[in-house]
Specification:
single chain; 456 residues; alpha+beta; Thrombin, subunit H; 4 domains; 10 helices; 28 strands
């Protein structure tokens, strides 16, 4: 468009808004042959695919003291539970119109007994929960309905900072609402919102109730699932986050097939590559993950990875840090091939590993510390209700008259930390205890209560 034409259009628009009130029907649809920009045609196609979700559920409220069997026994207090009814509002996106599959957030439907879905045409259906993955905050619902509209998915890996996006959802229960903005940043992680984070950051307004709704590009293709915000009082200040649709689709496929996410294991521990480490290795690479430990017999061990290898790319995707590595591995199902580019002694190598089923190790606590004598410790297996929700070490059994039993450890406890070190598995617990002397502080999870525990 020529500069003079732009000036004339701007002048006409100013006159329209400064002149006496007129009916909206009098506004022109074009100026000098140029149509006024509008998102309306795209939204007319997309908004029928975004649904409102209302939930009803219940939560059990218990005092941390009443969770302690010693406390109840000493004061002769019977086990008491108080249930509280809950209600929630959120959004969802129809991703498959033939089978009625809807993507939303796990936190939208958590603890729900009844999930009601309302379409744009005001039809209501009770949804079936297909599966949920708290680690990525993704859930899949299904409704039996005809004439559904689904939204097409884009390739979220092709998003760029500055791309225009539109958020659609049900903020504060007001009903379907549309806001717009740009992609402010990509690959946001380390926020502590979810276990696996690779967020799209946008300044499109997202508020409570928008969770699970659609983030689309100007073509109306789905690029993300709106999930979280950072802002005082729970309101939007222009810092909002969405799960990339490529990540959400991988989780959705496993939830539909298995009802859960079956994550595999590579079997390495790693740390971020720093400029100091890069200089020490004599490489020009500034981003990546340095392997610090390899589990014997693991997929990494069988593939030939070595301690000191610098992982710089996985499946043709450059690695920035260990969080990137964790995200990639956490989204791959068991049996997937992992093509890794590593720098070893200044040379680049390509190594392929097959993601393996995580092995649940068990270990006698006394082999780690005399103060844990009598406890049987293990990684958290699939049969545990904490699997996929909590990282730590499970107390699989305790002999009552043993040092661990007399100290108060109980079967089912989860060890989350030792002194100031966070624990994710048995390997990390072994390393933490090897470097610990004197008083031993355990950060324990028992039921829904988290507390510190001292072993003298």
């Amino acid at each position: 468009m020529k500069p003079n034409s732009m000036i004339r259009i701007a002048a006409v628009l100013m006159l329209l808004f400064l002149s006496p009130p007129v009916s909206w029907s009098a506004l022109p649809v074009a100026i000098e042959g140029q149509e006024l920009p509008t998102l309306a045609p795209m939204l007319q196609r997309v908004t029928p695919a975004v649904v409102n979700i209302a939930t009803q559920g219940r939560v059990v409220e218990r005092s941390p003291l009443l969770d302690d069997p010693f406390f109840r026994r000493f004061f002769d207090i019977p086990e008491q539970r108080r249930e509280r009814r809950t209600q929630g509002l959120g959004s969802g996106v129809i991703i498959d119109s033939e089978r009625g599959y809807i993507l939303t957030n796990n936190h939208v439907i958590a603890n729900a007994d009844v999930i009601m879905v309302t379409l744009q045409d005001e039809r209501q259906f009770e949804a079936r929960l297909v599966g949920t993955d708290p680690d990525t905050d993704i859930a899949v619902l299904q409704v039996e309905a005809d004439n559904l509209t689904a939204v097409a998915a884009a390739d979220s890996d092709r998003l760029q900072v500055g791309d225009f996006v539109v958020a659609i959802g049900n903020p504060f229960g007001l009903g379907q609402t549309v806001t717009s903005g740009i992609v402010s940043a990509l690959g946001r992680s380390g926020l502590g919102i979810e276990s696996y984070e690779d967020f799209i950051q946008t300044d499109a307004s997202i508020n409570p109730g928008n969770s699970g709704g659609a983030l689309v590009n100007l073509r109306g293709d789905l690029v993300g699932i709106n999930t979280a915000i950072i802002g005082p009082g729970g309101g939007s200040i222009g810092i909002s986050f969405a799960i990339p649709i490529n990540m959400a689709k991988k989780i959705m496929e496993q939830l539909i097939e298995y009802g859960e996410v079956r994550r595999g294991r590579l079997g390495v521990s790693a740390q971020d590559l720093t400029p100091e480490l890069a200089q020490g290795f004599g490489i020009g690479q500034r981003k990546g993950a340095v392997i610090t430990q390899i589990v014997k017999g693991s997929a990494a061990d069988k593939a030939g990875l070595k301690v000191g290898d610098v992982l710089v790319a996985v499946n043709n995707r450059p690695l920035r840090n260990t969080l990137d590595l964790r995200n990639v591995i956490g989204l791959l199902p068991v049996g997937s091939k992992l093509k890794m580019e590593v720098i070893r002694q200044g040379r680049r190598h390509t190594i392929t590993a097959i993601i393996a089923v995580p092995e649940v190790r068990r270990l006698e606590g006394g082999k780690l510390s005399p103060r844990l004598e009598g406890a049987v410790l293990s990684d958290i297996g699939r049969d545990s209700p904490y699997f996929g929700r909590v990282e730590g070490v499970l107390v699989a059994g305790v002999a009552l008259r043993s040092p661990a039993g007399q100290a108060g450890l109980r079967k089912g406890d989860i060890i989350l930390g030792v002194n100031d070190t966070q624990i994710t598995d048995l390997n990390m617990l072994e390393r933490a205890l090897q470097s610990t002397s004197g008083r031993l502080w355990l950060n324990l999870l028992r039921g829904d209560s988290e507390f510190y525990f001292v072993l003298r």
